[in-house]
Write a structure and sequence with these properties.
The protein is mainly alpha-helical and 95 residues long. 49% of the residues lie in helices and 4% in strands. It has four helices and two strands. It has a two-stranded antiparallel ribbon. A hairpin with a 4-residue loop joins strand 1 and strand 2. Helix 2 runs antiparallel to helix 4. The radius of gyration is 13 Å and the shape is globular.
Length: 95
């Protein structure tokens, strides 16, 4: 199904990245052990998508690495990944 493909692609972006596009995985930096906030799991999808789109457009310029990553993601991938992360439970104790 299309939904299954969307979830699969979003999970790939979060866990593996898109090496062919120069997109690293989200999880190695944004995880409970790395201590880099914000936690992405269980975050509002609309909030995540807006932040990524603001990085992509240059509206948000406080993090060059994230801006470079966001520019390599399609708007569709931003939406899919934001929805996937929103539906993912937050790690215990990270509320």
């Amino acid at each position: 199904s299309r939904d299954g493909n969307d979830v699969s692609r979003a999970r790939t972006i979060v866990e593996v990245g898109l090496p062919e596009s120069g997109v690293p995985a989200c999880r190695p930096c944004h995880n409970a052990d790395a201590g880099i906030e914000p936690w992405l799991e269980a975050q509002h999808a609309g909030y995540l998508a807006k932040q990524l789109k603001d990085f992509k457009s240059g509206i948000r310029g406080n993090d060059k690495a994230m801006a470079d990553i966001a520019r390599r993601l399609s708007d569709d991938d931003i939406e899919k990944t934001s929805g996937f992360l929103a539906s993912t439970p937050r790690p215990p104790g990270k509320h």
